[in-house]
Amino acid sequence: MDIAIIGAGAIGLATAWKAAEGGAAVTLIDPAPGSGATHVAAGMLTPVSELTYGEEPLLRLGLASRERYPSFVAELEELTGLGTGRRTDGILLVAFDSDDLRYVDDLRRFQESLGIPSEALTGREARRLEPMLAPGVRGGLLAPEDGSIDPRRLTAALLAATERTGVRLVRRRAAGIVVERDAAAGVRLDDGTEVRADRVLLAAGPWSGDLDGLPPGTVPSVRPVKGQVIRLRTRAPFLGRTVRGLVKGSHVYLVPRADGEIVVGATQEELGFDTRVTAGGLWELLRDARELLPGITELDFAEVTAGLRPGSPDNAPMMGATGLPGLLLGTGHFRNGILLTPVSADILSALLLDRPVPDIAAAFTPDRFTADRFTAEVSQ
After folding, report:
1. pTM reported for the whole predicted model
2. Strand 2-6 relative to strand 199-202: parallel, antiparallel, unpaired?
3. Domain housing 295
């Protein structure tokens, strides 16, 4: 089977690797692999810490992907010999003031109602785990099974894995879908050439609907959500694990790497395809980070970046067949693209190869946004 995949972020790369490993001839199309949201992402593996009310199906998907990560990384590192920077030291969620602490306590009770373990901490207990926390931090909770990975190292390993499994990488922009006999038959590139394929996977993030040849309504709306991120560097130990903070209702996180880098993020801005780094966005991040960890201002400045997360209408992934035969969709992962990479690659490669698809995928098919399915669900 010939498969074309548009988009070489973490999920596109991982799906290409798994589809090629399954015996398909895979062409991966992207002018700059790994340069989008994957390049900017902090890499938190946090289905518990990211949990919000009403998102139980997404939580189950996140937990399944977190459980898949050890074997996924082991396979990847054995194949390529490259590390991914995966850490399993838990994530600490801390509250700056009393209102923030009430939110954290409510979140902990909600997690407990779902059978998810977390440990409530006083401010003193939180500072015992992370001594650089400000004296005024009121408390928090520890999610011991959460962790992080370095998306840039993950991308390098996934690129190597696609090369070793025979994936053909085309560094061009996809301009359109080739449609023949009312079905997808390949991809037209920006230079006018065509990549023929039996099946096409559209995994181009917020650009997934921006292709010629797509019949109206084929791809549900995918909107860009801007995130600005700061990278700092420390010469001495500063954080032992990822810290997520709530500061007067605002969220901030700090993700340490083994090489001394600390990733601070991220803003969430609905500004279309604007990727400018702004003084206001960076000030907000540093302001909130400093409230939690006053020593942050002494660290070396390394980099600022902004990326565009792909947001679906309900902020959950869209993975499955579209209304155009032969065209599948794998986008809309919003804030959870790195977390959901292993399970998404398993689901999408199974779909592409006509193999059994995990039951957990049923809640995330693109047709959940069609009028016919919505009407049927309401009438049940």
Report:
1. 0.94
2. parallel
3. 91-144+223-311
